[in-house]
From TrEMBL:
Residues 21-475 form the Aldehyde dehydrogenase domain. Keywords: Oxidoreductase. It comes from the Bacteria. This is Betaine-aldehyde dehydrogenase. The active site is at E249. It holds the Pfam family Aldedh. Belongs to the aldehyde dehydrogenase family. InterPro entries: Ald_DH/histidinol_DH, Ald_DH_C, Ald_DH_CS_CYS, Ald_DH_CS_GLU, Ald_DH_N, Aldehyde_DH_dom. SUPFAM superfamilies: ALDH-like. Signal peptide: none annotated.
Length: 481
């Protein structure tokens, strides 16, 4: 890990805490062991929640400008350790080092600064009813459990940590077991910034062993989760026991609609972008829906770009696509593809693991893949693969395009490539999606609401919507003098 030392014990109440057992964290780049990680269970979860609970009155009473100052200090710490964080994250999850350096880690710092500033700008509704004043305040809700996935570990964690801490809620973060490292480094950064003990805690371990007792704890007042649909169901059941509000950012099967009037070079660029992070992005537009007359022209441009992608070590500047997260995940991705091929699909690109690279390195490399000849009701079109696997379907009318786009149980995002603004507005209005991008992708302002419809999630975060979630709103009504 480029000489960076990470303390992989839990971080609870401002102290490092061990567990009796550990598990081995390996790099998806070459399978090498990176660290032994504390394997938390119910006891450590209880300790972490107790620490957050003990810190709650002090943190809730900390004036917003001071909370904001501390968040800025943590963000500065992220900037100061950007190289270490980027190197460790790349070793741990295999996403491109240059993206971590230039995009992901700066964004993690930005998440913290954005919510610090937003806190100070929060509007307070004051109005009068028959002479009585109504004063509406955003009160801290209490300890929050944050459960995060492995595809963008620290970035997604700060997307939750920022608003939770700004709102006055202490947090317990349970990072994904495949990518535990940057959460531990981040704990050091919070301590160096002077965050009081217990306001930020890290619980390491497996989902069922550490995550489950954490989200089931009676002292947790909010649960924010990014991950898979089956896990969301389990968490929703646990949170229901104590009537705890949950925020879920789940999977997607988002479409990219390419209309005949689109700039086809731009459309091809947008399509190839979907292989970023080896396709392990919840927002990825994995279903290419192309208007029939431009299918071949689009495909030619797409294949030209996709074949130029260099697959290999994500630490190298020339690499365009790295490994998938884990050999087990690679197997899962390949299972989807094999079943699709058996059902009659054709691989226009890739169609299997990169066996030579995987064998030589010991990593988990899957070839960028495009499958055509897929039916709308087939597994490969309906289920999230979470790998570098796209499908190609065609349409002939706008109605058909919309029906195909909306024809899964998900509703996270959609991307349109079209040269016609009226069409873009018309189609966007009919799509079931939390975000619709036209002639662009992944442009994300933190002030905008973010989340998914249907099986893609519950609730929206970003801007004041995050404060809606992490706060208990209170209205204080006072009679006239
Ligand atoms: P994936 O299938 O992408 O690994 P998961 O939804 O299983 O996604 O995991 C996302 C996060 O949820 C991880 O941090 C994982 O440890 C955690 N997790 C898994 N199961 C549970 C559970 N029952 N309760 C709480 N957290 C869980």
């Amino acid at each position: 890990m480029a000489g960076v030392t990470v303390d992989t014990r839990h971080w609870i109440g401002g102290e490092r805490l061990d567990s009796a057992a550990t598990f081995t964290d390996r790099s998806p780049i070459d399978g090498t062991p990176l660290a032994e990680i504390a394997r938390g269970g119910a006891e450590e979860a209880r300790a972490a929640v107790a620490a957050a609970r003990a810190a709650f009155p002090g943190w809730a009473a900390t004036p917003p400008p001071e909370r904001a100052r501390l968040l800025h200090a943590i963000a500065d710490g992220v900037d100061a350790r950007l190289e270490d964080l980027a190197a460790v994250e790349t070793a741990d999850n295999g996403a491109l080092l240059r993206s971590h350096r230039r995009g992901v880690m700066p964004r993690a710092a930005h998440n913290l600064r954005f919510f610090a500033d937003r806190l100070l700008a929060l509007g307070h509704d004051d109005f009068t009813t028959r002479g009585h004043t109504n004063h509406v305040t955003w009160d801290p809700a209490g300890p929050a459990a944050l459960i995060t996935p492995w595809n963008a570990p620290l970035m997604l964690a700060t997307w939750k940590i920022g608003p939770a801490l700004a709102a006055g809620d202490p947090v317990v973060l349970k990072p994904a077991e495949w990518t535990p490292l940057t959460a531990s480094l981040f704990a050091d950064i919070t301590a160096e910034a002077g965050l009081p003990p217990g306001v930020f805690n890290v619980l390491q371990g497996y989902g069922a062993e550490a995550g489950e007792p954490l989200v089931s704890d009676a002292d947790i007042r909010r649960v924010s989760f990014t991950g898979s649909v089956p896990t969301a169901r389990r968490i929703a059941r646990a949170a229901a026991e104590h009537l705890v509000p949950t925020s879920f950012e789940l999977g997607g099967k988002s479409p990219l609609l390419v209309f005949a009037d689109a700039d086809l070079d731009l459309a091809a660029d947008l399509a190839v972008e979907q292989y970023d992070n080896a396709g392990q992005v919840c927002l990825a537009a994995t279903r290419l829906l192309v208007e029939e007359p431009v299918r071949d022209a689009f495909l030619e441009r797409f294949l030209h770009r996709a074949r130029a992608l260099v697959q290999g070590d994500p630490r190298e500047e020339a690499t365009g696509i790295g490994p998938t997260i884990h050999p087990r995940h690679l197997e899962r991705v390949d299972g989807f593809v094999r079943r699709a091929l058996a059902a009659g699909a054709t691989a226009l690109l890739g169609g299997g693991p990169h066996t030579e690279l995987t064998g030589r390195t010991g990593g988990a490399y899957y070839r960028p893949t495009l499958l055509a000849g897929v039916a709308q009701d087939s597994e490969i079109v309906q289920e999230e693969v979470f790998g570098p696997v796209l499908t190609l379907q065609t349409f002939t009318t706008e109605d058909e395009a919309v029906a195909l786009a909306n024809g899964t149980r998900f509703g996270l995002a959609a991307t349109l490539a079209t040269g016609d603004r009226d069409r873009a507005d018309r189609v966007a209005a009919r799509l079931v999606a939390g975000t619709v991008w036209t002639n662009c992708f992944f442009v994300r302002d933190l002030a905008a609401p973010f989340g998914g419809s249907r099986a893609s999630g519950m609730g929206r975060e970003g801007g004041d919507w995050s404060f809606d979630f992490y706060c208990d709103l209170k209205n204080t009504v006072t009679a006239p003098k």
